[in-house]
Each structure stands twice: as structure tokens, then as C-alpha cells.
Amino acid sequence: xxxxxxxxxxxxxxxxxxxxxxxxxxxxxxxxxxxxxxxxxxxxxxxxxxxxxxxxxxxxxxxxxxxxxxxxxxxxxxxxxxxxxxxxxxxxxxxxxxxxxxxxxxxxxxxxxxxxxxxxxxxxxxxxxxxxxxxxxxxxxxxxxxxxxxxxxxxxxxxxxxxxxxxxxxxxxxxxxxxxxxxxxxxxxxxxxxxxxxxxxxxxxxxxxxxxxxxxxxxxxxxxxxxxxxxxxxxxxxxxxxxxxxxxxxxxxxxxxxxxxxxxxxxxxxxxxxxxxxxxxxxxxxxxxxxxxxxxxxxxxxxxxxxxxxxxxxxxxxxxxxxxxxxxxxxxxxxxxxxxxxxxxxxxxxxxxxxxxxxxxxxxxxxxxxxxxxxxxxxxxxxxxxxxxxxxxxxxxxxxxxxxxx
Length: 406
Ligand SMILES: [Zn+2]
Fold this sequence. Notes:
Elements: E1 5-8, H1 27-31, H2 35-44, H3 47-50, H4 57-68, H5 74-93, H6 97-108, E2 112-117, E3 138-141, H7 142-145, H8 152-162, E4 169-173, H9 179-185, E5 189-193, H10 205-211, E6 214-216, H11 221-225, H12 233-243, H13 248-253, E7 266-270, E8 276-279, H14 281-296, E9 302-305, H15 310-322, H16 327-333, E10 347-351, H17 366-374, E11 380-382, E12 398-401
Parallel strand pairs: 1-2, 1-4, 2-3, 4-5, 5-6
Antiparallel strand pairs: 7-8, 9-10, 10-12, 11-12
Bound molecules: zinc ion.
């Protein structure tokens, strides 16, 4: 079931690499505290801070810092508050454009978006100025909600406001605060995003990847998970071949070549059944010229099949497999997905009156004789003659427009 809502974590998921936030020193360095010790205090011993029980920035930093080192001066604490607030302001204003774009695409695809952030008042002070503000249907900040990830209440309040069930939603985060465990516990699917934390806590990646349903490095990859990003042609073909258990080696041995899908197509001919046959503009124009010339010689030639997508080709092969044909039999007459000349928008399967379509008997027609003598003038040639080098059965009906020959 496709999800209705995606819920994101904020820091270290949607924000950029911490090393690139700004040139300001780390808060721990200002305080003269070991970074790991400071981070542990922040993440494991300060629910009071995240739940908004303390909302005064100075008192937050003072309590955390003096637990570790009671001798830290007021002056140092004030400087630390200033630097910490500025660092988070930078992190929120400098959110990677690709992440903002991803959220826009998800919204455009009709998904509802939620945000659940464990954050104190200092961390989200600059939220309103972030390019992320306004992109979510629901924002839940722990310091305002009074609950904290991984507690079920914080997930529940976000899902309720989004008007979706846990099963209808996906949680995306870097896994800090045990958020992936919490999201799973309430029944959400989970995506672990490891790109930002790789520079901070690389040792945590394996464990979190094992918890989550999916693991991506960067947020834009979520689009691919949801089928909202067209995978590159070659990758798509590879996975389709794998799904049909076709080995790329056998294709290479036959000398088959990949044909990328045409992007610009126009109607070359509309069949008697109303079906529109699409070709690239150049091939369509050449086809119409050929068809007109044939007609003036009282020869009727019609298109049975023109452009065909990679996806459609995969369906054709899959249907034949399901009918019990062997892969070997199928690939003698059908191209594997990605390898059909029909993807190019330049190939046509032709027929004429009085014969069955896509049968060798086409070679005995006046139409075939006319094509053999004239097609070349219009840039069309027979792709799979008898004993062709690709190992396909003879296809007298399959012609392809090759611009250079026109
Ligand atoms: Zn064909």
C-alpha cells in the first residue's frame, strides 16, 4: 500500500553536514568540554531540556555544562549560548537545496508531510527563517509538545494531526534518540538516513541500518524508494532483467544493444481500432512520406506496433513466461526489456490486407515487395532478416528508421 504521509526528523536528517553548518566553533569547544562527553549529556541526560521543562537558553547550557565541569564561568556560558544559538540558526538556514526540493516533490505527489524534532528552544529559535518552514502539514517540536522521541506520544500526536494511521506513514531519520525504534514500535515503516551522521558517528550506522526497513545515504533517495524518481535507464533495465531472471551475459553474447526510450514522440498513424502509433518526430515524418508513396502505388501498409516503453516490453516478456514459455523461446522472438528497437521510437511492425499480423507470410505480400524496393529511400530498413546476427527469428514485418540512411 503506498503511504499517505512521510514524517521526517529534522537535525542530521534534513540539515546538512555539521562540519559545513558554519565557521563558528563547536559549543563543546567554547565550553572546553570533550565533544563526546558534551554530546552524551545532550542526547542521553537531558529529557528536561527537550521536553521544554526548561526554556531559558542560559539555564539550559549552564545546567548541562556544570554537570560536567562545575568551574565553568558565567562569561564562558554566555558565549556558549550565543555560539550554540548561532550554529543552529546556520544549520536551519543552510538546509541543502536538494532536501528542500525533495519535500516539494513529495508534496506535489500528494503526500502529507510531518516533522518530529527532538529540540530545545535554542535549537529551533530560527525555525521560522528556515527554507523548511511552511513545507510541512504538521510540525511537532518536543520542547513545545512536552514529549520526546522515542516516546509513542510524540509519534501519535503527529500522526493524529496528519489524520493518518501509523501503517499509512513512513518515518525518515538519522536514528538518533532511538527514533527508528520508536517509529517502528508505533507501527510506522522506517527509513534510515546515514549521510550526515557518517562524519559524526560512523560506528552507529550498521546497527541503525539493521533496525530500519530501508537505508539511504541522503534524503533525495527517498523519492526513489517511493517510485517518484525515474531511475536512470541502465539501472532500471538492470533491475527489470533481474526480475525476469534474464542474465545480461547471454544478451551480451548475442550482441544485443541497449536502446534508450525516446523522450519526444508524436502520433505517426492512428489505427482503425483508434490506437495511436507513436514515433519520434523525424521517424513519424519519414513514415508518413513512405505510407503516402506506397498508397500512390496502390499498396496499403499499416503500423501494427511502433513505440513501446521498456516497462511494456517487460510486461510482454513476463506474460509469456507466465504462459509457460521458456526464456530461450521468448527471447528468440521478443527483445528483452531495454533491448527492443521499439524503445527508440524509430521501429515499426507493419502489416497489410489479407495476412495475419506478425507472421512470416508477410514476406509474400505486395506490401513487403514494395518495402524491399522503396523503404530505403525513406530511411527505413529491415532489422532482422533471415540468419540475422542477433539470433532473432526472421521478422519481415519489423522495419526501423535510421536517419543516416534517409
Ligand atoms: Zn518489431
